[in-house]
Each structure stands twice: as C-alpha cells, then as structure tokens.
C-alpha cells in the first residue's frame, strides 16, 4: 500500500525511484508507524499523507547542483529523520549526519539506518547549540538542512555554524517563508550568510505554499555563536 502511494507521489512530483529505493521507503514507513505507537514521531501516519507530506516534502531540498557525489550533509533537529533519510535514500552517495536532541529518537534513527542498510550515516545525540561548538562538526559540512524545527532567525543560529565557508544552508519552509526571510535578515548576516535564494516548491495534490530557502555561507560564523542552549529561542537575533 505505502509502496504504491510513494511511487505515485514521486511520479507526480517528477522523479523516478528504483525498486530498491521504493523498498527502502516502504521499510522506513513501516518502522515509523511501528515506533510511533510508543513514542511521538509524527502526527501523520496515513500512507498517502506520509508519502507526500514527509517523504516528497523532504526531497524538495534536493537540487543536483548542490548534491554532488560525496557531498557532506548535516540534518539539524532531524526528529524522525526528515529531510535527511529520504535525501539519503534518493541519493546514496551523500555523507549524512543526523543530529537530534532526544536520545530515543536517535535510537529510532539508528534502527532505520541499520534496517535500510544505509552507508556513511552518523546519528548524533546533541542539541544544535552544543553540537555546533564541537570541532568535529563545526564548519565541517557542505550542506546543512532542516525542516519544521523553528522560525528562520532561530534556525540560522542553529544550523549555519555547521556549514563550511562556501557551503549552503537549506531551510524547508511553509507559507510564512517570505515573512520569516525578512525576520532572519540580521541573523543570516551575523552567521556569515552572503546570499539568499528562495525556491518555491509544490507538493503533488496540495495547494499550500512551500519554499526552500537557500542561504550561501560567505564568511565563517563568529566564535560567540551559537549562544548557549535555549538562548536563540528566548532571544532571537
């Protein structure tokens, strides 16, 4: 059932998936629904809705211009693995780091990675503000991605410290993306952002407004950022 919905949604969005990819998406869905019974991973469980609103929505971040072979990607505040895991299934060559602040979600992610046989994926239990102060992760990634975590000014402080100079931060945003972009102008500048490009996206069968906000990092993030845990939310830039 889910496999068929996924295939139809992908075709409607204009991408084709291999049998192996459909199998991986299907197994991911099964694990999501199974684990969701004992922990809060998603409010959406109906096959068609998961296919469109989680899986395809995650793939809207994909642009072959940036997702070159072996590109390093960090998904900050990944939750149930969106958008990182769908991107990894779609493009197995990416080197992926999934970061989340909740340990039980990280256990779920590790299970998904093992069950799907995904290679070059690291699951990290850390808050973004702490992870970005770790030399192993700070300014080490070509791309940072994030979806449904916080408003853009806060998200920039969470995600941009992970991005190398010349890399990009891709924020998957809903209908308020233009307003959020204006709000985030200062944060983008402070974090070292140099250029912003907004790419509107359309999900099959849905009328809502969505966009991927693509921020290029031109300068290193000052050492003072991110501020300590909780501060970006209480006092956004």
- Poorly predicted residue ranges: none
Strand content: 15-25%
CATH superfamily: Vaccinia Virus protein VP39
Count, helices = 10
Mean pLDDT: 95
Helix content: 25-40%
* Principal-axes shape call: globular
Main sheet properties: 7 strands, mixed
The main sheet orders its strands as 3-2-1-4-5-7-6
- The rounded Rg comes to 17 Å
Taking the alpha carbons of the first and last residues, their distance comes to 45 Å
Describe the structure.
It is a single chain. With 237 residues, this protein is α/β, with parallel strands linked by helices. It has one domain: Vaccinia Virus protein VP39 (Rossmann fold). 39% of the residues lie in helices and 22% in strands. The protein is built from 10 helices and 7 strands. It has a 7-stranded mixed β-sheet, with helices on both faces. The model has no long low-confidence stretch (mean pLDDT 95). Pfam families: GidB (PF02527). This is Ribosomal RNA small subunit methyltransferase G. Its main location: cytoplasm. InterPro entries: rRNA_ssu_MeTfrase_G, SAM-dependent_MTases_sf.
């Amino acid at each position: 059932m889910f496999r068929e919905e996924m295939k139809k949604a992908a075709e409607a969005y204009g991408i084709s998936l291999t049998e192996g990819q459909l199998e991986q998406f299907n197994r991911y869905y099964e694990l999501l629904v199974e684990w969701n019974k004992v922990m809060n991973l998603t409010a959406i469980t109906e096959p068609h809705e998961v296919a469109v609103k989680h899986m395809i929505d995650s793939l809207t971040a994909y642009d072959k211009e940036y997702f070159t072979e072996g590109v390093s990607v960090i998904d900050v505040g990944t939750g149930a693995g969106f958008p990182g895991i769908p991107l990894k299934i779609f493009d197995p060559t990416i080197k992926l780091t999934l970061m989340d602040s909740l340990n039980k979600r990280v256990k779920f992610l590790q299970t998904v990675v093992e069950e799907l046989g995904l290679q070059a994926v690291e699951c990290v239990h850390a808050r973004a503000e702490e992870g970005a102060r770790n030399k192993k992760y700070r300014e080490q990634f070509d791309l940072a991605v994030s979806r449904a975590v916080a408003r853009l000014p806060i998200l920039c402080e969470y995600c941009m410290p992970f991005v190398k100079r010349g890399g990009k931060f891709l924020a998957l945003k809903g209908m308020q993306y233009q307003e959020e972009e204006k709000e985030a102008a200062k944060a983008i500048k402070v974090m070292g952002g140099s250029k912003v490009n907004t790419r509107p996206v359309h999900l099959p069968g849905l009328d809502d407004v969505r966009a991927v906000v693509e921020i290029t990092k031109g300068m290193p993030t000052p050492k003072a950022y991110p501020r300590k845990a909780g501060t970006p939310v209480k006092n956004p830039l």
